[in-house]
């Protein structure tokens, strides 16, 4: 019946929690052993005289749910997402700076090539002019 199911749910929720990420069921933190469901209880650890191990889950205030220690819910936190976004923006800025410097290097290389061609052209023009002058002087001397 409906009332029995509600009562069973209340009892279950009072003694057990499920990890919000992996859906594994654990005994409620702070109540007894703290291990997987069926792994023991307060009677088990107190009978053996052993201290109870740390709880297997914790309540994440940012996610507002129980998470086991095997799962990492920090990747879903806003602070983690903002940090990733910041790193991504920094990488993009570095890429732009590298791209700019690459373009600048390319432009400088082209300028250097143009300057080299201009100097070579001037040198060849000067050599050609000097050669013409020598040729003009040679017939004048022979004539």
Q: What would your notes on this structure say?
A:
There is one protein chain. It is rod-shaped and about 125 Å long. The strands form two sheets. The chain has a two-stranded antiparallel sheet with strand order 1-2. A two-stranded antiparallel sheet has the order 3-4. The protein is mainly alpha-helical and 143 residues long. The chain has helices at 2-15, 42-48, 78-142, and strands at 16-18, 25-27, 57-60, 65-68.
Shape: rod-shaped
Q: Report the order of strands and helices.
A: HEEHEEH
The residue-averaged pLDDT reads 78
Gyration radius, in Å: 41 Å
How many distinct helices?
A: 3
Number of beta strands = 4
Residue fraction in strands:
5-15%
Helix content: 55-70%
Which assembly state applies to the chains in this document? single chain
Q: What is the topology, as strand order, of the major beta sheet?
A: 1-2
Q: Structural class, judged by helices and strands? A: mainly alpha
Largest sheet: 2 strands, antiparallel
- Cα(first) to Cα(last) distance is 134 Å
pLDDT < 50 runs, ≥5 residues? 32-48
Reconstruct the topology from this structure:
Elements lengths: L1 H14 E3 L6 E3 L14 H7 L8 E4 L4 E4 L9 H65 L1
Antiparallel strand pairs: 1-2, 3-4
Question: What's the short story on this structure?
Answer:
The protein has 143 residues and is mainly alpha-helical.
List keywords for this structure.
two-stranded antiparallel sheet; single chain; 10% strand; 3 helices
């Amino acid at each position: 019946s409906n009332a029995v199911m509600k009562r069973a749910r209340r009892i279950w929720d009072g003694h057990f929690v499920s990890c919000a990420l992996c859906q594994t069921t654990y005994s409620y933190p702070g109540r007894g052993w703290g291990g997987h469901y069926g792994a023991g209880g307060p009677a088990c650890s107190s009978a053996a005289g052993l201290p109870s191990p740390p709880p297997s889950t914790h309540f994440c205030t940012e996610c507002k749910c129980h998470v086991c220690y095997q799962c990492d819910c920090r990747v879903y936190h806003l602070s983690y997402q903002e940090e990733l976004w910041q790193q991504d923006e920094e990488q993009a800025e570095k890429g732009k700076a590298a791209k700019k410097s690459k373009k600048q290097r390319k432009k400088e290389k082209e300028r250097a090539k143009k300057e080299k061609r201009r100097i070579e052209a001037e040198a060849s023009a000067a050599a050609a002019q000097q050669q013409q002058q020598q040729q003009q002087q040679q017939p004048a001397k022979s004539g």
